[in-house]
Amino acid sequence: MNLGNTVLVWVISFVVVTLFFYGLDHMVMSSQDLPLNLNLTPAQ
Amino acid sequence: MWLKTLLTVSPAAAASVPKQGRTKWCLWLASIMVVMGLGQLLGISPVDSLQAAEVVAQGSAEVLKGAPELAAADYPRVGNSSSRAVVWILAQMHLFFAAFVLAVPLFVVVIEWVGVKTGDARYDDMAHEFMKVSMTAYSITALFGGTLAFALFLLYPDFMGYMLEVFGSQVLVYALLFFLESAILYMYYYSWYALRYGNAKYVHLSLGLLLNVVGTTLLVIANAWATFMMAPSGVDANGAVTGDIWEIIRGPLWNPVNLHRFIANIAFGGAIVGAYAAYKFLSGRSNTEKAHYDWMGYTSNFIAVLSFLPLPFAGYWLMAEVYAYSQQMGITAMGGILAWLFIVQAVLIGTILLASNYYLWSGMSRTEGSYRYKWLVKYIAIVLTGGFLVWVTPHTLILSAKEVAALGGSHHHLLGPLGIMPAKNIAVNLMLIVTFLSFQLYRRSDKVATVSWAPAGNALMVAIYVIAVVNVIFAGVYYGYFTNTVYKVGSSVMQVVSTLVVIVAGVVIDGMMYKGAKKLPSEWGKVSNRSQYALFALPVAFTWLMALMGYVRSSVRGSWHVYTVMKDSSPDNFIPAIGYAGNMMTIVTVMFLLCVLFVFWIASLSSTKQIPPDSQ
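^ inputs. structure came back:
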C-alpha cells in the first residue's frame, strides 16, 4: 500500500468513526429525551 | 382449599360416568391433582392468586395480615453476641462460596465445548480440574447455607416467619432445585471420563448445561428474597400480601441484581481458580507442570477480566434503579454515611485493574512478538495510575475547623472538581478502555494478521480507540461541568456506550482480522513468578469488594428488615460506623481466603499418592 492510500485509509477511518460516534451520541441522548443541537450544545 | 374442593366434587362426578370410563376419569383427575400439586409447590396456584385478587377487591371486607410489629424483646440473643454480626459473617461466607460454585460450571461448560470444537484434550483436562476445585467448595457452601438458616430462625424468628409467609411454598422450590443441583453436579463431575468421546460427550455437555440452568435459577430465586427486603412488591404498605408469588419476586431491583450478581460471580469464580493456578504454578516442579498451570492461570485471568469489564455498567443500572425506586435509599448509599465506602470500592477496583493489567504485560514475555506493542505499556500505566488517583479523590473531607481554614474552604480548589461523579466517570471509563487495550495487545502479541485488509482494520481500531476516548472526556467535561444535572446524568450513558463500542468492536475486528493468522512461537511457563502474585491479588481484592458492596446493598435499608414495610426493632437496627463495618468485612474476607486455601489443599491432596513402603 503506497503512502497516499495509507493516508486515505486513516482519514476515512477517522471520519467514519467520528460520524458513527456523533450519531450514537444523538441516539443515546434522545432516547433519554435529551436531544443535542447540531453545535453539540444541549437543548434548552 | 383447592384440594378440598376437588375431593368434594370428585365422587359425585365419578358416579355420573359409566364404569368403563371411570378409570380414564380417575387418571385424568390424578393428573390434574399432580399438576395442581406442582403448581402449589411452585407457588403459582391460580386459586391462591384469585383469592388474593378477591381480597384486594373486597377492600375492608377482609383484613389482610400485615408484617409483624416487633419490640427489642422479640429478638432472642445468644449470650452477649451481636446477632447481626453472627448472621453477617454466615451470610457473607455462604454468598462467597455460592458465588464461586455457581460460577465455575458456567465457564467450565464453555471450556469443555471449546475442547470439543478444537479437538484439543488440554481444554477438557483443564475444565475437569476447574470442577475438581469447586467440588469441595460445594459442600462448604451447603454447610454455611444450613448454618445461616439455623442462625436466622434462631435469632430473627419473627422476621423469618414473615418472609416464609410472603414467599410461601417458593422456598420449597429452592430446596427442590438444591437437590437437583447436587444430583446433576455429582453426575456431571463423576461422569467426566465415562462420557468423554463421541455422542456421549454431548450427553455430558447437556448435563453441564442443565447444571447451569438449575444453578442460575437457584441464584435468581435467592436474589428475590434479598431484593424483596430492599424494594418490596406484591404487598401493601403494611406488608400484607396482595399479589401472587410472581408479583412478589419481580420487584424493581430483581433483574438489576440478577444481572449484576451473574456477571460478578463469573469474574469472582475466574479470579479464585486463577489463584489456584498460580498456587500450582509456584509449587510446580517440572516445566510441563508449570506450562500447564501458566496456561490455566492465563485462562482464569481471561475469564475474570472479560466478565469484569461490563460489571460497572451492571452496577450503574442497579444504582439507577435504586434511585428510581427510592431517592432516599440512593442518597444513603452514594451521598450519605455509605458514600465513603465507594472510595474504598475505587481502591479495590483500581487494585483489580492494576493487577490484571500487570499480569497481561508480564504474560507478553511468553512470546517474542510482543516487542511490537511493549512501547504502549507505559502509556497505559500512566492512564491507569491517573484514573486511579482521580477515582479515589474524595469530594468532602472530614476536617477540623483549623484544617478548613488552612485549606481555604471545605473543598480543596484543585481536588474539589475531581471528587465529583463526572471526573470519576471519565476515570473509570478510561481505565476500562485501556485495560481492554492491554488485553487486546496481549492477544495480538503472538500473531501476525494475514488478511489483505489488515492495515485498514488497524486504522479503524485505532480510530475507534481515539474517538471513544475523546467522546468519554468530552461528555464528562462538557456535560459534567457546564450543563445542568439532567444532562450530567444522561451523558454518562454516552460514556458507557463509548466504552462498550470499543470492547465489542475490538472483539469483532480482531476475531475477523486474526482468522487464519500466522502464529508466532509462544512458550507457556515462560513467565515471571511476580506475575503469579498478581493472580493472588485478584481474588483478595474481589472478595473484599464483594464483602464491601454486599454490605452497602444490604445496609441501605437502614432500620428496616423489609424497607418501609417491616421495621427492624432489634438492638442492631442502625447502620454501624464505617470502622466497625470495615473490620467485619476484613474478618469475613480473611476467613474466606483461609477456607479457599483449604479447598486448594484438598484439591491437590486428591492427586497425591503415597509411595509404597516396599519401593522406598
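Chain A has one helix and no strands. Chain A touches chain B at residues 1, 6, 9-10, 13-14, 16-18, 20-21, 24-25, 28-29, 32, 34, 40, 42 (CB under 8 Å).
thumbs up if we can close this ticket
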